Amino acid sequence: MTGIPAVSRRAVLGGAGAGLAVGAVGGAWGGRASARESKPLPGTARVAFHGPRQGGIVEPAQARVEWAAFDLLPGTGRDRAAGLLRDWSAAAARMSVGEPGGDGGGGIALDAGPNSLTVTFGFGTALFDKLGLADRRPPALAALPAFPGDALDPARSDGDLWVQIGADDALVAVHALRVLRRLAAGVAAPRWQMSGFARTPGATARPTTGRNLMGQVDGTNNPRPQDPDFAAKVFAAGPDWMAGGSYAVLRRIRMLLDDWESLPTDRQERLVGRRKSDGAPLSGGPDAGERTPVDLAATAPDGTLAIAPDAHVRVAAPDSNGGAAMLRRGFSFHDGLLADGSPDAGLLFAAFQADPARGFVPVQQRLARGDGLSRFLRHEAGALFAVPPGAPEGGYVGQPLLEG
Length: 404
Ligand code: HEM
Known about the structure:
alpha+beta, 11 helices, five-stranded antiparallel beta sheet, four-stranded antiparallel beta sheet
């Protein structure tokens, strides 16, 4: 099993204290060096479920993620939806400290610690109509525009409810998914489900920003919690029930990996604007490192721009998009082969922001037209969810909306 002996697990949990958030810095942005990674027994690490914000936004991306969307069954009213969120929140809180989630789950995670489990709940736009709450739908949850090149599969897009489960152990994550799915029976039906992965804690001697399946260091220029405007970029100020929440834009982006890997490294680097080996910006010269600031005006010895006009980091940068910013927290997926034998692999892109109209939307509008990388990408599914603030002890996520 992937777990640790019960005795030592109890001892470590007892020592850590209930509700202690472990490894709550780094990770989604660069330079991750978290308590979680330096712990000898990562299975014991836990992230508090209750608190002002939901988990799974600012914490380091765990090794494994399960995304699942559900649709309310016809005739489901506000009471039953509230009951589901109450049950889901209670189960998530139990599992986040390594206790059984309840019925279901089939013993998948017996003996395993919480492994930094986070469970994040989100509400889709159609939920508000179905529950008679259209007047409380936030303007920021307006449907996203269509972007050039989008080929989104409706069956794998949208949904009334979203659950993001992250854990550093795949069995723990799948167990939580099974438990939550069972609790939804009779109230909401699964609509789509996706699995992703990121670097496992302890996998590298030098903990650093993770890589995506194109081999790039990905996440360097994310907003960071220590930035004075971090909360303003990532967390919503309102309306009332959403204050302290966030908006998650999801995209399943397939990568044309066989084509990408046939490019020489210097060509790959020009398309991104950063060095592949260490993520240093191409504007920084040979001594630059990952953290060297990007200089979009810098020129190469031949007089051309050091960061090409169509380089991903130029086109996506806040300076190119009127300051638009978001917290990216994606995971890789590798789901077997397509009919033509190419890998069905890529990025489960997730961006959290205070308002998608000042985050994802302007950036994706520009990327879809001018990003060199986009020739190697296919946007295949997408969704937008309001992610309410966290629940206090004894409360549940979404309670102020569903009971207000
Ligand atoms: C599979 C698709 C994608 C890949 C492989 C990818 C890869 C990367 C890489 C390697 C970087 C540089 C390192 C970093 O700062 O994180 C980066 C930066 C960035 N990406 Fe992407 N990206 C993808 C999709 C997107 C999408 C869909 C958006 C938003 C609409 C986006 C927005 C950004 C932003 C805002 C930055 C930081 C730019 C800066 O300020 O320097 N990316 N991406």
